[in-house]
Amino acid sequence: MKRFLVLLVSVLALSLGIAGCGRRSGSLTVVGSTSVQPFMEMLAEKYQSENPDIQVNVQGGGSSAGVKSAIDGIADLGMASREIKDSELAEGITPIVIARDGIAVAVHPENAVSDLTIEEIRAIFAGEITSWEAIGGVGDIVVVMREEGSGTRGAFEEIVMNKVETTKDSIVQGSTGAVMSAIAGEPNAIGYISLANANATVKLLDVNGVETTNENILNGSYAIARPFSVCTKGDATGLAKDFIDFIMGEVGQQVLADEGLVVGK
Amino acid sequence: MKKRNLAQRTAFLLIGASAVITFALFALILGYVLIKGMANINWEFLTTYPALMGREGGIFPTIIGTLVLTGVALLIAVPLGVAAAIYLSEYTKGGIGIRIIRFAIESLAGIPSIIYGLFGFAFLVTFLKLGFSVLSGAIALALMVLPIIIRTTEEAIRTVPDDYRQASLALGATRWQTTSRVVLPAALPGVVTAVMLASGRAVGETAAVWLTAGGALKLPFSLHDPTRPMTLHLYYLAAEGLSLERAYATAAVLLVLVLVVYSLAIFFRQKFGMKRR
Amino acid sequence: MKKNSVETPSTHTIHKDPGARKEKTIHIVLLLAATVSLLALFLITAFVVGEGWPVMVKHGPLNLILGTDWTPSRLSFGMLPQLTGTLLVTLGALLIAVPLGVGCAIFLAELSSEKVANLLRPCISLLAAVPSVVYGFLGVIALVPLLRSTFGGSGYSLLAGSIVLAIMILPSIINISEDTLRALPIDYREASLALGSTRWQTIWRVLLPAARPGIVVSIILAMGRAIGETMAVMMVTGNRAKVTGALLDPGATMAGTIGLEWSYAADEHSSALFALGTFLFIVIMLLNGVAQLVTSRGRVSQ
């Protein structure tokens, strides 16, 4: 048994060695948030068209997997769609915010309601208001949320819920797309989604009379937004630094703006 | 007598109904996916890259992802599985050690894919630092299909008549010569069946590769690149509501591939007269 | 075991003969291949349990199992919602699949002509091959809307999970049950019929009781499959982490919760998902054990 273990470990070590050598030659691995992933794919595409010798691998896995991969050295860059935790910063992680994404409150297109106050939204997601009748609609409210740990959910709870616990009486979906599908199929549904990924199958509500747009996020009148960041272990060096500089440069920021994210301070 | 006939007639009616319901359901499901999907499949869909995370374009890298993951998993699992099956059926008569090994094999067969995924994530991706990669995904898949290969191969070896072995041994062949030149060739169709069943399982698997292979929508150029198989792509297309037409088409391609592989397995098994599992 | 390797042969006279030496080496290589499964099982256990250990120790396994509140952001990891959800979805699936599956098996083994059975049987094997994500996809686009329009509510429900699972486990129930029925000696049937029983009485009073161990094994294996299924269930059940007794409510399962939350889970949350995986693993291993026991006791053909 022991001998076999030694064999196994040495085979694995060998393949790791080969991996280590292969990765240096002009390739970058970016791992993390599935919310950031589509934008990163586009950035990578643009970057590679300018630098044909560099290969950028973008993969999902989630914010935590991304940060963890950066800490463990599995990825050159991690992507996060939530704030970096203190425990992660303690591991030497350096985050850089590349853009912000609005979080929109969405309902079925046929819903009569089109404007809610932040207090009303809080009451709905806390399970205190359970009927549309109380706020100018019809039927019982079906709350749709993201899963525990999601960056969208984290930001929504922090900004909107203000320490009030969200209701357990909700459907939980694993992505903005899945939340939109659930809302599009259920006339009484309400949920929160990533603004940059929103499409016409759902209706976005105004919050406190302010329309959910990037301009309003930028001018500060719409407050529900979360950072998209990339992170490296320690300070970025070499290729990783070059790629981050590209993202933060004019071309990169324009790509992100074109895709519906909020860039600039 | 009448009452008995009535009971029998009712019972047979219910049994017949359950058979009709079952097969109608299955025909409906397969027919629905294939018809809906085939309408959206063309050469371009199969050979071009996806754009906008799969909202547009084809599924070429995910087909390659599926083939590469399955291929590498088989490269690992087939030699191991066949060797294990040979050992268990030709080289040992039993004993407590063998019983424990058999228990392990049976247990592996019953462990759900999400557990293989968790294991792969904790051990392969993180602990061994293989990262989200073809290699991590393939090793997780290999362990998952290992019991299928061992059991099916063993069954095949058991159908080889004992006379073959005795004749070979009597001619002075060693046990390994007997095994490699007489028993294995005779059991070959069974081994092929095992490989087919294992590939079918690997091609159709989602959860285990989701937690290990990363899911990048790119062609994997090395074992250390991440990849996204068709199953995972279908999940993203469906769950994220990216493109219904492409989801149908991907499901259809996946189904056709799995059905072809399983049909081959069934064909070889029936040809070889092995028992069904 | 490996102590008695090439250098120190124990019983055979190996040193003199290079052929025998090669035989011995081959023997060891094959043995090593056979032990890979054991090693894999050990590593899987070690890493899944190991990662879940911190949360197990901190909260206590009993508190985890009996806790009704699953709120990882507050580090509250009550797993009762997932446990009851898994139980309900599985029971629902069995309620649908067992009668259908056993009925089908009786049809194939006892009632249909050999020709029809030989035609239908490969179809069932093929259906076992349909990937679970395809069932999940169909569940989302067809079943959930159907349940919504039939029963009201959102359609995302434990019932949706049960139906999808029932379809997924049908093939294995049919296969094993039919194999068991066919393996029964023809004498059983002839003796019973000779005593004046009808065919149905023969099936009901003689064949089904005799085939019970095989049918039980098929149900246990199907249960294991249902309990561990992730993708299809996660896509249709709505994943609401709240204890419920109603099949029409949305609900979460153990595997579904792992699938849904693993990618964003950090620190203790991640460990809690592995703890959930550990409980899932324990349940599956118990079911495996029972199935293996019944198999060896009842000489089930499988």
Would you write up a description of this structure?
- The complex is a heterotrimer of chains A (265), B (277) and C (302).
- Chain A has 265 residues and is an alpha/beta fold.
- In chain A, 40% of the residues lie in helices and 23% in strands.
- Chain A has two domains: 26-100 and 227-258, Periplasmic binding protein-like II (D-Maltodextrin-Binding Protein, domain 2, 3-Layer(aba) Sandwich), CATH 3.40.190.10; 102-225, 3-Layer(aba) Sandwich (D-Maltodextrin-Binding Protein, domain 2).
- Chain A is built from ten helices and eleven strands.
- In chain A, strands 1, 2, 3, 4, 6, 7, 8, 9 and 11 form a nine-stranded mixed beta sheet that branches.
- Chain A is elongated.
- Chain B has 277 residues and is mostly helical.
- In chain B, helix 5 (113-127) packs across helix 6.
- Helices cover 76% and strands 1% of the residues of chain B.
- Chain B has a single domain (29-276), classed as MetI-like (MetI-like fold), CATH 1.10.3720.
- Chain C folds into two domains: 2-59; 66-301, MetI-like (MetI-like fold, Orthogonal Bundle), CATH 1.10.3720.10.
- Chains in contact: A-B, A-C, B-C.
- The A-C interface holds A 1-5, 8, 33-34, 60-65, 67-68, 82, 85, 87-88, 142, 147-151, 154, 157, 165, 168-174, 181-182, 185-186, 189 and C 1-2, 32, 35, 39, 69-73, 140, 144-145, 148, 153-156, 234, 238-242, 250, 252, 259-267, 269-270.
Brief summary:
The complex is a heterotrimer of chains A (265), B (277) and C (302). By secondary structure, chain B is mainly α.
Q: How many individual helices of chain C?
A: 12
What structural class do you assign from the helix and strand content of chain C? mainly alpha
The major sheet of chain A is characterized as: 9 strands, mixed
**pLDDT < 50 stretches of chain C:** 1-14
Principal-axis shape of chain C equals: globular
Order of helices and strands of chain C: HHEEHHHHHHHHHH
CATH architecture of the largest domain in chain C: Orthogonal Bundle
Please work out how many helical segments of chain A DSSP would assign. 10
* Quaternary organisation of the protein chains: heterotrimer
According to CATH, what is the topology of the largest domain in chain C? Answer: MetI-like fold
Number of domains of chain A: 2
Looking at this structure, what is the CATH superfamily of the largest domain in chain A? Periplasmic binding protein-like II
Q: Largest contact between protein chains?
A: B-C, 89 and 92 residues
Distance between the termini of chain C: 31 Å
CATH class of the largest domain in chain A: Alpha Beta
- The averaged pLDDT of chain A comes out at 85
CATH topology of the largest domain in chain A: D-Maltodextrin-Binding Protein, domain 2
Q: Strand order of the main beta sheet of chain C, please?
A: 1-2
